[in-house]
Write a structure and sequence with these properties.
By secondary structure, the chain is mainly alpha-helical. It is about 40% helix and about 0% strand. It has a domain at about 1-20 and about 45-75.
Length: about 120
């Protein structure tokens, strides 16, 4: 079920991108720079592309909510620690005291010194 909703969600996202890119630019941000039909104007004429944009946007939000509900329903109630095998306890030597502050905390590096860049052929 989640795969079907996710596929529809991705198709809606791609369709929404295409429809938004097909719309005519009004020359400014939020449609301020042109005649009618912008966000900041009174009641612009609703074209077919703007209606399609709204429909795709509503469907996109609906599939987003559906995916969230499906993920919440399918999530396990126990934690990762509860699912660990019983014999998977850490050995005692891994729980030793940390190294003293004077010791080097980094693993030993190569004994040849710094690495040289590869030779050009």
């Amino acid at each position: 079920m989640a795969n079907v909703v996710l596929t529809i969600h991705l198709l809606l996202a791609l369709s929404l991108i295409v429809v938004v890119l097909l719309q005519r630019s009004e020359g400014g941000g939020l449609g301020i720079g042109g005649g009618g039909g912008g966000v900041m104007t009174g009641r612009g004429a609703a074209t077919a592309l703007s209606k399609l944009t709204w429909a795709l946007g509503v469907a996109f939000v609906a599939t987003s909510l559906a995916l969230t509900i499906i993920a919440a329903r399918d999530s396990a109630r126990d934690s990762v620690i509860d699912r660990a095998p019983a014999g998977a306890e850490a050995p005692a030597e891994d729980l030793a005291a940390p190294p003293a502050l004077g010791e080097d905390l980094l693993p030993p590096g190569p004994s040849e010194g710094p690495a040289a860049p590869p030779a050009a052929e």
